[in-house]
Structure prediction request, 109 residues.
Amino acid sequence: MSEYPWDILGIEPTRDELAIRRAYARMLRKFRPDEDPEGFARLVAAREHALHLLATGGVDEAPAKEAEVTASAEQPETETSQGFSSKEIGRNSRTSQKRSRADRYSGAI
Prediction:
């Protein structure tokens, strides 16, 4: 990470808009506008520059990052002793969390 805007955002070059926005949000803790107006201005400019590079296709992701993504996508599913795959368990637990939130706010007492 030696290039602007990625060094200010604290991330490797990426084509992921959400990653850029999350990095900006993380760095807001460090460059607060009321405490460091110049640092905040550099952070905003870095975010805008990164989003502009993303929109114009000027982002070359780091090759190591792409290799990590490929490796994680190729990981095999594991099975539990009950015969469920790891992906099924993750999906089912998120669904049950959504249901429990909905039940909480349904108005039933």
User: Anything to note?
Assistant: Residues 78 and 106 are 36 Å apart (CA to CA). The domain at 1-75 is CATH 1.10.287 (Helix Hairpins).
